[in-house]
Design a protein that fits this description.
Blueprint (H helix, E strand, L loop, with lengths): L4 E3 L4 H6 L5 E6 L4 H16 L5 E6 L4 H6 L7 E6 L2 E7 L4 H8 L4
Parallel strand pairs: 1-3, 2-3
Antiparallel strand pairs: 2-4, 4-5
């Protein structure tokens, strides 16, 4: 099982915007089947990039303000943050190689 941080409105700034390393935020919901498909890939990445990349999961049902703030209209959505700014976005259950390609620009 990979290592990830559960994100909420109370820890978003600290864990994402003020992170010293790039962060992937997985916007998901319990009822979302494609979210369950991508979750193991995200967990693999948390192991492979440990220390270089932070993995965070944000439940859109529990944190609607953050989701609205970043224009999340479809899940799963992965936002990649670097230096407190969203720099990459992937929508849907994309393959691992697609995520790794996008990570190259921030690592």
């Amino acid at each position: 099982m990979g290592k990830y941080v559960e994100i909420s409105e109370s820890n978003f700034d600290k864990e994402i915007l003020k992170s010293s390393i790039p962060v992937i935020v997985d916007f998901w919901a319990e009822w979302c089947a494609p979210c369950r498909l991508i979750s193991p890939i995200v967990e693999e990445l948390s192991n492979e990039y440990e220390g270089k990349l932070k993995i965070a999961k944000l439940n859109v049902d529990h944190n609607p303000h953050i989701s609205m703030n970043y224009g999340i209209r479809s899940i799963p959505t992965l936002l990649i943050f670097k230096d407190g700014k969203a720099v990459e976005q992937l929508i849907g259950a994309v393959p691992k190689k697609t995520i790794v390609e996008r990570l190259k620009s921030v690592l």
